């Protein structure tokens, strides 16, 4: 049996982030690294975004309907590579009814805002508005045992705050950022 993927990258969401970066002051240009690997990564940052999951398992015990859930805590790791390249690892979640792992449909505005903010921060831009981290109004608690980001140690729901790593020459290791 093939093990389901526990994370993915989304090159299809790059155009929205790229357009926002190019229209910013100062304009910035980054290209998307299509390789879902830490190899060559010089900085990384753990945060979360919002989205929706749909369980497509026909044997899921949900009275013949698809189990659908939203999450405001979808773990992501933004990764910076040399030559102004980046990508974003998106961690998947498991259906609480059948435990199959599923890839989320992401809130594209939230995705672009997080990526633009992080890349601008790494580029030395100052006085930026922090993208909102919407709290509350969730339909339930974050269930760590169903979150691949938690299992991999990259989910902000673990209570350690956001996490940044500088892997460049002379860079430090992990820095925990509260909030």
TrEMBL record:
Pfam families cross-referenced by the UniProt entry: Zn_ribbon_3CxxC
Instruction: Supply the SMART domains for this chain.
Output: zf-3CxxC
For this UniProt entry, the molecular function terms from Gene Ontology, in alphabetical order, are: zinc ion binding
Specify the 3CxxC-type domain's residue ranges: 48-153
Which InterPro entries does the entry link to?
ZAR1/RTP1-5-like_Znf-3CxxC
| Entry superkingdom | Eukaryota
User: Which UniProt keywords are given for this protein, alphabetically ordered?
Assistant: Metal-binding, Zinc, Zinc-finger
- Record-given protein name: 3CxxC-type domain-containing protein
What is the originating organism of this protein? Aspergillus calidoustus
């Amino acid at each position: 049996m093939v093990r389901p993927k526990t994370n993915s990258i989304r090159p299809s969401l790059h155009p929205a982030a790229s357009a926002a970066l190019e229209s910013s002051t100062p304009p910035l240009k980054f290209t998307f690294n299509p390789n879902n690997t830490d190899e060559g990564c010089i900085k990384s940052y753990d945060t979360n975004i919002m989205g929706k999951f749909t369980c497509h398992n026909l044997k899921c015990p949900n009275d013949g309907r698809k189990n659908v859930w939203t999450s405001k805590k979808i773990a992501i790791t933004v990764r910076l590579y040399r030559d102004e390249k980046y990508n974003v690892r998106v961690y998947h979640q498991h259906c609480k009814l059948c435990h199959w792992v599923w890839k989320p449909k992401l809130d594209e505005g939230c995705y672009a805002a997080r990526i633009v903010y992080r890349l601008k921060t790494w580029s030395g831009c100052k006085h930026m508005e922090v993208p909102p981290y919407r709290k509350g109004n969730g339909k339930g608690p974050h269930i760590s045992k169903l979150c691949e980001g938690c299992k991999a140690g990259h989910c902000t729901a673990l209570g350690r705050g956001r996490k940044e790593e500088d892997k460049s020459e002379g860079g430090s290791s992990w820095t925990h950022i509260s909030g």
